[in-house]
Amino acid sequence: MIVAVALVILSVPPLLWTGYLALLTFLSQESRPPSGGAPSTRFDVIVPAHDEEQGIADTVRSLLSAEYPAELRRVVVVADNCADATAARASEAGAAVLVRTDLERRGKGFALAYAFEQTLAGGHADAVAVVDADTVVTRNLLEAFDVRLRAGAPAVQAHYAVANPRASWRTRLMHIGFTLFHDVRSRGRERLALSAGLRGNGMAFAVHTLRRVPHEAFSIVEDVEYGVRLGLAGHRVWYAGEAKVLGAMVSSERASRSQRTRWEGGRWALARRHAVALLSEAIRRRDGVLLDLAMDLMVPPLSYVALATALGGGVAVAWCAFEHGRAWWAVLPWALAGAFLATYLIRGVWLARVGWRGVVDLLWAPVYILWKLTLSARRSASRRGEWVRTAREGANKP
């Protein structure tokens, strides 16, 4: 009896995590964008870049080919502490270039803060959009931002997707993961009028938002950090799922190692620092946006959720068998958590449109989880938001 009760108690966190994901899944129908009209938002499209001479021209050309009036948008590349020809390549492709050199304050967060300061001082833009230097965009990106900003959105996030899902089994799994994390969850939040969250790539902010909530976010996950700051200031991020930014993901294990360590290490640090305080503030204010932001930080990466659910469920089933079925009730919460998780995964696979090849690649998931556990065991601290460049690989254009 004691063991069975302990198993039920241990099932509470996975049940809360998977139940939260299932709720967003059930609400993940596509939302209609606001009514259109003639575009009128003047954009500065900011591209923070550090030693990106190989791909920066493709990103600039992709942005300049967006279906949006040329007089209403300007592409600005921030060449941040570059030791290569990033600035020259960006200028040749048609971008305005800001060259920034500061050996003490390095990283994407500092580059963005510098660019935003220039935009606010110039007074010629109504909003800024942020697109990473290894990215191509769909042609409707600025139009999708425009209709929402004119409808009153303080900030908007596009669908951040993988540009090269067919490169390897690893990128196909990442494509499914991105669809789950960036699209399924954001769709559900949009229907609940919660904050879609910021993903670091494909973001847009009204100028008045940046004035009210300065971009003082300099960690390795500056996007999540600033999203929390917006939530605390009473602003939610709207989701523009019909527009995409497509980033090239690395397919080799060595390059993926540094990329994944940065992402997850930064999120763990932010969760430790903000999750409990956010939850407390959400309860105090009775604020659903803050509650969701807290839940987003408290839910571990999907691989850990799946591992905890599988291990706990397996132990519960084994104990039930050992007790000749008398502890059957200890299996129920784990089975429910497994059902919630399966619903979430099936929705992500469906929206990712990966076909049977992607489904078969899910068999690699245990290997991927073991690899991530190994990374976690040897993770080292990173200097705030310091640039740590990941090797680039070829990407498919939209």
Helices, strands, pairings?
Blueprint: H1 2-10, H2 12-26, E1 43-49, H3 56-64, E2 73-80, H4 86-93, E3 96-100, H5 108-122, E4 127-130, E5 135-137, H6 141-150, E6 155-162, H7 169-191, E7 203-206, H8 207-212, H9 222-232, E8 237-247, H10 253-285, H11 288-298, H12 302-322, H13 332-352, H14 355-361, H15 365-377
Parallel strand pairs: 1-2, 1-4, 2-3, 6-8
Antiparallel strand pairs: 4-7, 5-8, 6-7
Helix pairs in contact: 1-12, 2-7, 2-13, 3-4, 7-13, 9-10, 10-11, 12-13
Description:
The protein has an eight-stranded mixed β-sheet with strand order 3-2-1-4-7-6-8-5, sandwiched between helices. It folds into two domains: 2-26 and 276-377, no CATH class; 43-273, Spore Coat Polysaccharide Biosynthesis Protein SpsA, Chain A, CATH 3.90.550. It has 398 residues and is an alpha/beta fold. Helix 1 runs antiparallel to helix 12, helix 2 (12-26) runs parallel beside helix 13 and helix 7 (169-191) packs across helix 13. The model is unreliable at 394-398 (pLDDT under 50). It is globular, with a radius of gyration of 22 Å. The chain contains 15 helices and eight strands. 48% of the residues are buried.
Structure at a glance:
This protein has 398 residues and is of the alpha/beta class. 53% of the residues lie in helices and 13% in strands. The protein has two domains: 2-26 and 276-377, no CATH class; 43-273, Alpha-Beta Complex (Spore Coat Polysaccharide Biosynthesis Protein SpsA, Chain A), CATH 3.90.550.
